[in-house]
Amino acid sequence: MYEKTNIFTEAFTFLTKWGSVILSIGIGVLAKISTEVLLKRKLSMMQWLGIMGVSVFGGYLMATWCQTSGWQEQGYYLVPLATLFSEKITIYITTNYRDILSRLLDLFIRRNENK
After folding, report:
1. pLDDT in tens, 19-46
2. Of 39, 101, 102, 108, which is the most exposed, with the fewest CB atoms less than 10 Å away?
3. Is there a contact between 36 and 10 (Cβ–Cβ < 8 Å)?
4. pTM over 0.85, yes/no
5. 3-state secondary structure of 48
Protein backbone atom coordinates (compact mmCIF):
# COMPACT_ATOMS: atom_id res chain seq x y z
CA MET A 1 0.00 0.00 0.00
CA TYR A 2 2.86 2.36 0.78
CA GLU A 3 4.27 1.96 -2.74
CA LYS A 4 0.97 2.91 -4.39
CA THR A 5 0.67 6.04 -2.30
CA ASN A 6 4.26 6.92 -3.12
CA ILE A 7 3.68 6.38 -6.86
CA PHE A 8 0.59 8.61 -6.82
CA THR A 9 2.45 11.26 -4.85
CA GLU A 10 5.34 11.16 -7.30
CA ALA A 11 2.99 11.35 -10.29
CA PHE A 12 1.14 14.31 -8.74
CA THR A 13 4.44 16.07 -8.01
CA PHE A 14 5.60 15.50 -11.60
CA LEU A 15 2.36 16.81 -13.07
CA THR A 16 2.33 19.91 -10.87
CA LYS A 17 5.88 20.71 -11.90
CA TRP A 18 5.70 19.85 -15.62
CA GLY A 19 1.95 19.91 -16.36
CA SER A 20 1.95 23.46 -17.67
CA VAL A 21 4.96 22.69 -19.87
CA ILE A 22 3.30 19.58 -21.30
CA LEU A 23 0.11 21.55 -21.90
CA SER A 24 2.04 24.39 -23.57
CA ILE A 25 3.87 21.97 -25.87
CA GLY A 26 0.54 20.30 -26.67
CA ILE A 27 -0.98 23.66 -27.60
CA GLY A 28 2.01 24.38 -29.86
CA VAL A 29 1.72 20.98 -31.54
CA LEU A 30 -2.00 21.54 -32.08
CA ALA A 31 -1.25 24.92 -33.66
CA LYS A 32 1.43 23.31 -35.85
CA ILE A 33 -0.93 20.56 -37.04
CA SER A 34 -3.66 23.12 -37.69
CA THR A 35 -1.27 25.28 -39.71
CA GLU A 36 -0.15 22.32 -41.80
CA VAL A 37 -3.76 21.29 -42.46
CA LEU A 38 -4.77 24.85 -43.42
CA LEU A 39 -1.81 25.11 -45.82
CA LYS A 40 -2.87 21.74 -47.30
CA ARG A 41 0.68 20.38 -47.28
CA LYS A 42 0.80 16.80 -48.49
CA LEU A 43 3.12 15.01 -46.07
CA SER A 44 3.94 11.38 -45.55
CA MET A 45 3.66 9.76 -42.13
CA MET A 46 7.44 9.93 -41.64
CA GLN A 47 7.44 13.65 -42.46
CA TRP A 48 4.64 14.21 -39.93
CA LEU A 49 6.61 12.30 -37.30
CA GLY A 50 9.74 14.30 -38.09
CA ILE A 51 7.94 17.63 -37.90
CA MET A 52 6.24 16.71 -34.64
CA GLY A 53 9.51 15.44 -33.18
CA VAL A 54 11.35 18.65 -34.04
CA SER A 55 8.43 20.71 -32.74
CA VAL A 56 8.23 18.90 -29.40
CA PHE A 57 12.01 19.09 -29.00
CA GLY A 58 11.99 22.85 -29.70
CA GLY A 59 9.22 23.36 -27.17
CA TYR A 60 11.09 21.29 -24.59
CA LEU A 61 14.28 23.29 -25.12
CA MET A 62 12.40 26.55 -24.65
CA ALA A 63 10.65 25.22 -21.54
CA THR A 64 13.98 24.15 -20.05
CA TRP A 65 15.53 27.51 -20.90
CA CYS A 66 12.61 29.38 -19.33
CA GLN A 67 12.84 27.24 -16.18
CA THR A 68 16.57 27.77 -15.75
CA SER A 69 16.42 31.49 -16.56
CA GLY A 70 13.59 32.23 -14.16
CA TRP A 71 11.12 33.04 -16.94
CA GLN A 72 8.28 30.79 -15.76
CA GLU A 73 5.60 33.37 -16.57
CA GLN A 74 6.99 34.06 -20.05
CA GLY A 75 7.15 30.32 -20.70
CA TYR A 76 3.38 30.23 -21.00
CA TYR A 77 3.60 31.92 -24.41
CA LEU A 78 7.23 31.27 -25.42
CA VAL A 79 6.94 27.47 -25.26
CA PRO A 80 3.97 27.22 -27.69
CA LEU A 81 5.63 29.74 -30.02
CA ALA A 82 8.90 27.79 -29.99
CA THR A 83 6.94 24.59 -30.62
CA LEU A 84 5.13 26.20 -33.54
CA PHE A 85 8.21 27.73 -35.20
CA SER A 86 10.90 25.17 -34.39
CA GLU A 87 10.52 23.37 -37.74
CA LYS A 88 11.15 26.61 -39.65
CA ILE A 89 14.04 27.55 -37.36
CA THR A 90 15.60 24.11 -37.87
CA ILE A 91 15.23 24.40 -41.64
CA TYR A 92 16.87 27.85 -41.57
CA ILE A 93 19.78 26.64 -39.44
CA THR A 94 20.42 23.53 -41.55
CA THR A 95 20.25 25.55 -44.76
CA ASN A 96 22.54 28.35 -43.58
CA TYR A 97 24.80 26.52 -41.12
CA ARG A 98 28.02 27.46 -42.96
CA ASP A 99 27.28 31.18 -42.82
CA ILE A 100 26.20 30.94 -39.17
CA LEU A 101 29.35 29.03 -38.17
CA SER A 102 31.52 31.44 -40.16
CA ARG A 103 30.03 34.42 -38.33
CA LEU A 104 30.46 32.72 -34.97
CA LEU A 105 34.08 31.89 -35.75
CA ASP A 106 34.75 35.47 -36.84
CA LEU A 107 33.19 36.70 -33.61
CA PHE A 108 35.43 34.47 -31.47
CA ILE A 109 38.57 35.20 -33.51
CA ARG A 110 38.02 38.95 -33.23
CA ARG A 111 37.39 38.62 -29.51
CA ASN A 112 40.68 36.74 -29.05
CA GLU A 113 42.61 39.25 -31.19
CA ASN A 114 41.37 42.16 -29.05
CA LYS A 115 42.77 40.58 -25.87
Report:
1. 888 888 899 889 988 988 899 988 899 9
2. 39
3. no
4. no
5. helix
